[in-house]
Protein 1
Amino acid sequence: MTDESGAYECALCGATYETAPEGFLGLDVESHDGTVENHWYPGFCSTEHAAAWFSRPLPHPDAVYTWEPHTAGADWRFWGGVVGGLALGLAVLALAAVGTVSLLG
Ligand SMILES: [Zn+2]
């Protein structure tokens, strides 16, 4: 993980580095629990420390996103747009027809 100063910090031992040392790992970890998506962005000074970190229960996540599963509501919005577009097209055609008829009349 990196802090505001840009230092690289090991999530396990807390060692910090100004620049990424050789073998430093930066990981993007995510878990899905129902509709909740948890994210972690841990950094490790070595693969051994990464392995030790993963052998423990995950800490409180850095970020939690709630995602909406695909629902019928999204389909309704899509089809509403399709039907609305068709209705608008028909209305334009109807107006054009009325205009043509009134010109002929
Ligand atoms: Zn470490």
Protein 2
Amino acid sequence: MSERFNRITPEILAELREAVGAGNVVAEDADALESYASDEAGIMYTSMPEAVVKVESTEHVSAVMRIATRHCVPVTPRGAGSGLAGAAVPLRGGIVLSMERMNRILEIDPVNRVAVVEPGVVTNDLCKAAAARGFLYAGYPMSTETSFIAGNVATNAGGGRVIRYGSTRRHILGLEVVLPSGSVLDLGGRIRKETWGYSLMHLVIGSEGTLGVVTRVTVNLEPLPGRTINLLAAFAELDSAVAAVAKVVRAGLPVVSCELLDRVSADMAASHANAPLPCQDSTDAYLLVQLEGDSEERLDDDCERAGTLCLDNGATEVFVAESRTESAAVWGLRQNITEAMRARDPYCSLSGDIVVPLSAVPEMVGEIRRAASERGIVVAILGHVADGNLHPTVFKPEGMTPEEWTDCAEAYYDDLTAAALRLGGAGSGEHGVGYVKMPIFLRSKSPEELEIMRGIKRAFDPMGILNPGKMPGEGPVL
Ligand SMILES: Cc1cc2nc3c(=O)[nH]c(=O)nc-3n(C[C@H](O)[C@H](O)[C@H](O)COP(=O)(O)OP(=O)(O)OC[C@H]3O[C@@H](n4cnc5c(N)ncnc54)[C@H](O)[C@@H]3O)c2cc1C
């Protein structure tokens, strides 16, 4: 624990229990606290909180923040803990502020086409509630069945539909945000345009819990598309798959998703699900393309055009998922791939999340493979390829200790980040900086950019108690 912060004393605990109810405060129970010590970045990135507070209302959040500010105790907001960058890890102990009990869908407003929800609503629950009223909530991280909506806001989550609908930022119209002082900001609203000063709302989106605590979210809803269709194309060369993506997107086809799986990740997913994929020995990569539209006939034509474009650009086989069951099976492979990788190696590092312009994807893939082979490690590549967003996952070689492995994986991702920046990209397309990428993040930004970011941080959080050690902080302290 840094000397800058105070430890939680029995007196502070008593104040917290008084403010939110004893049943909402966890302390002294090491097993219960441990579940809040890490996220999906992996067991290598762990730091114990001193208390977990499960808030039920905005008033609770304000009260906790006032107590934390008064006693200078760090607070780390937490959604579902599905983050892949260690952003919800309480690096300096203190309080983990859990949103799990603020999970109500407050309103679906069909006239203004918005939904208003509490921060702990599971993303897919919002999608289902919107669909039941004839709307689409277009946010679709692959963790949709676990992640919370405010976690999506705080990481500006991307996922499988960004090429058509954009990242979470595009879906957010309003936020209620509690500052470390306990004051409540009401930002944005049920409007789709605003030129009314600096957008504080957009500063909070993607700020990874470092500026304020999101306590209510107003999201944009789209009309529900009539029908979707999925096709899976196998390619002998990954570069040809990327060339096909560019052509399919440029053709103006209604592409919602365009997912890339290299052979290594596809084999892992298929063997985990015991569902073989159509392939030949030569297959190097697959594209999973989803199209959507209202007219059945038009969509069938679009699907045929997409398939032809794939075949003209090097696909060896194109498989169209004809039924709901077949579509669910191919998407199931993509969605459960992380589980397949973790089953193979609990130490596999899922933190790879670089983004480059689409034209640079082949070169980036070359770098990913070269840097892995130089280190003698296995890499599996998947990604939202139409966005240029690649997720290389690396596996711990036998005989390497977990500590050596953490250093090795971090050095590997540092090299990839450097390559991505050189190619005009960034070190994270959607998972964020968190703890895992702090050192390279700090090295990659100019002093001027960092100074502006630190000024923003000071304006929101003068004592630096919100999620300390993260962006744009002084660096990791574990
Ligand atoms: C299998 C799998 C697939 C994934 N696929 C994708 C994907 O396709 N696209 C993608 O973008 N990500 C993906 N992720 C990563 C992760 O699910 C997202 O980053 C998600 O947005 C995190 O949400 P969460 O609720 O779990 O947040 P957490 O992990 O709990 O927290 C993430 C950050 O948000 C902050 N935070 C949480 N709640 C609040 C709040 N109320 N106020 C302020 N800050 C808050 C935390 O402090 C932390 O900094 C995937 C993860 C897994 C495990």
